Each structure stands twice: as structure tokens, then as C-alpha cells.
């Protein structure tokens, strides 16, 4: 009975609710989904500054939750908070909001919806396209996909011109713009897309209806990430601790003392 934690990359509680509802709609009957919203950070993530601030908020939120669900060093259901221990984390943001940092921080699998969506899209089509929010986020998504080795079969990344928070203001307008951008990618003269990725956590839950409308697979990154997280948990797989994600050593983290590795040997520097 896995418990999957989904951390929103912004401080919008309504978006966390949307994301959790979409995750629960596709999760296995015995899977528990818990949503976490950072206590500090941007209301939405659309710039590089916001992305870096978001990563800090995400790290703090996951660390805080982990502490609350841990009793005497063993993860259990905490009688004090009622927070169930998480078996895998999903970062519900398109772009770069600290995935590698969380992989170092926690001892369970960490899934990024950007990568999860691309992997799913390539499983159901030879090429894929991403439809996202503002045009300025396109390079950030391209960089994430390139870093993950998933960019080669991506034929386009297009913005809708809508900010993250605008996605919720007029659902019909949002849906129509996504359809128009996706259709353009599907009907490119050269290298048309064969599947579409929804490039924002705020678009969660729209995949099935858009798939019917467009007649091609439309991948919701949240839904894709839930399936991957469940699979890793059931296989007993988590992040390798050799090399890149080896355990951190003791070091002063001024202003972030709560994230320091506890040790009596740590001295002031």
C-alpha cells in the first residue's frame, strides 16, 4: 500500500488541490496520495529567479514533512501530525525545481513530472510536443529535457501565453488555447508530433478529454508520474547512493540549520 507524496512547486493551495485530485483519479486503489504546499516561495513559477526560490521552498516543505512523519528515526504514521510516511515523492512542476536536491535529501524515489510526461509520450508515439504556459518558460523546459536526455524526440515546445495562475481563471479559454497549440504541433509540415505533453502541473487532469478532442495521446505529467512512482515503490527501487547522490557530509548551512546533517563533530566555521 504505497503512499505517494506530491509537492506543489508554488504556494497556491488551489493548485495543490487540483494536482492531488488528478493524481488520485489515476492511482491504484491501495495507493494513498498526499499533497504538500511550500510555506514560502513564489505563487507561481515562470522565471529563473522564481524557479530557484521555488526549489528552496520545495526542499524545505519535503524536509519538514519527512520530519513530521518520522518517529525516532523510523518512518511511521505520526501520532502527533497524522502524516503518513511517504514511499515516493513527485515534484509537480514543469522545468527545474530541485529534483536532484530532493534525490539527495530523501531515501525514497523522486519523480519529476517533466521527465515522467516525456517518457510516457515517447512510449505512445515516435515524437512528442509540449504545450506550456508563457513563452519565457520554453527554454527552461528545453533545458530540463536536455539534461534528462529526453529532448531528441521532442519536436516543439510552445507557450499558450497564459500564466500559471491564469490557467484556473477561465477553464474553457485555457482548454481552447491548449487545443490550438497542440493541433499546430500535430500538423507541422516537417516533423509533426505524434503525442502531446501538458507542460504545467496546473493542467493536471485534462489529459483524457484532450486526448479525445485531438485524437492523439495527451499526457498529463502528474498522472504519468503517479504510475512511475507506484512502479518504483512496488519494485523496491530508489535513488542510487553511489557517486552523484552519495550521502552528504557534515557542513554548516547558515540560515538552513534544519537541513544540516546531525553530528557531534560539526564545528563552527
Task: Set down the secondary structure blueprint.
Layout: E1 3-8, H1 13-26, E2 32-36, H2 48-68, E3 70-71, E4 74-75, E5 88-92, H3 99-105, E6 110-112, H4 113-123, E7 128-132, H5 138-147, E8 154-159, H6 171-186, E9 195-198, H7 207-214, E10 218-220, H8 221-235
Parallel strand pairs: 1-2, 1-5, 5-6, 7-8, 7-9, 9-10
Antiparallel strand pairs: 3-4
Helix pairs in contact: 1-8, 2-3, 4-8
Can you walk me through this structure?
- The chain has helices spanning 13-26, 48-68, 99-105, 113-123, 138-147, 171-186, 207-214, 221-235, and strands spanning 3-8, 32-36, 70-71, 74-75, 88-92, 110-112, 128-132, 154-159, 195-198, 218-220.
- The chain is α/β, with parallel strands linked by helices and 269 residues long.
- It is globular, with a radius of gyration of 19 Å.
- It is built from 8 helices and 10 strands.
- The longest helix has 21 residues, at 48-68.
- Mean pLDDT is 91; it is low at 71-76.
- Helix 1 (13-26) packs across helix 8 (221-235), helix 2 (48-68) runs parallel beside helix 3 and helix 4 (113-123) crosses helix 8.
- The termini are far apart.
- The strands form 3 sheets. A 4-stranded parallel sheet has the order 2-1-5-6, sandwiched between helices. Strands 8-7-9-10 form a 4-stranded parallel sheet, sandwiched between helices.
